Amino acid sequence: MSEPATQNGQKRDDILVAEKVRKEFGGLVASNDVDFTIPRGSVVSLIGPNGAGKTTFFNMLTGVYKPTSGRIIFDGHDVTGKPPHAITERGIGRTFQHVKLIGSMSVLDNVALGAYLRSEAGVLRAALKLDRAEEARIKAEAARQIARCRLDAHTFDAAGSLALGRQRIVEIARALAADPLLLLLDEPAAGLRYLEKQELAALLRSLRADGMTILLVEHDMDFVMGLTDRLVVMDFGEKLAEGLPAEIQKNPVVLEAYLGGVT
Predict the structure, then answer these.
(1) Pairing of strands 230-235, 43-47
(2) Which residues in 46-74 are b (16+ Cβ under 10 Å) and which e?
(3) pTM of this prediction?
(4) Cβ atoms of residues 61 and 72 within 8 Å
(5) How confident is the model at residue 260, as a pLDDT?
(6) Residue 126 CB: number of other CB atoms within 10 A?
(7) DSSP letters of 193-228?
(8) What is the pLDDT of residues 65-82, one digit of tens each?
(9) Nearest to 46 by CA among 184, 249, 212
(10) What's the rounded mean pLDDT across residues 16-44?
(11) Residue partners of 15: CB distance under 8 A and separation at least 6
């Protein structure tokens, strides 16, 4: 028996479906008719060597780039080519490869910025303190996400004073404060030390246990292999393979293109 689908053809257990998504930059094809799905409540990792097209694909999902062709369905809605703020409002949260915190502001205020993005008050009204009740509610939500990410001890510390691993977790807390259905993380383990990676992995497992759906774009193979439910491998804008981590590790095409070059 086939599974029920929404009016857009999306299965109810797939929170995101990308169909034949293509991106051309002049004569360069950075994403070549890629099909991609993310089941609800799962951790999916998008991997591949430098120049594989991972970042381009990630940026199309978040509205930074508009696909040349194809479509992206999120939670039953066609979000193809929608601007980033509209995609955030639909329920996609993201972090960036390079930390984008305001270092002089407290962890609490940085995380609160995520909640302002989806609040009625908005960032400008909040900055002008025009809605005290809404501001209090948002700060309470920010504090809840900080506690969820086990950063309570740093709530009032300047974000820039924290080690890189903790700053990455602050960014995740900020994304969570916008109440996303899908969390997209762009190389969250990059530059982290071993214990910082362990702390990050523990957090992501906890979020998955809470029902959060997560997409990782990552280079650290040891990190994703111990965490992800499913791997999608790209190279030269093409999807090479998709499957369980154990399957991907044995795939000769993947080994040739990517894994064989990783120590």
Answers:
(1) parallel
(2) bbbbeebbbbbbbbbbbbebebeebbbbb
(3) 0.86
(4) yes
(5) 55
(6) 20
(7) -HHHHHHHHHHHHHHHHTT-EEEEE-S-HHHHHTT-
(8) 999 999 999 999 999 999
(9) 184
(10) 94
(11) 38, 39, 40, 74, 75, 181, 182, 213
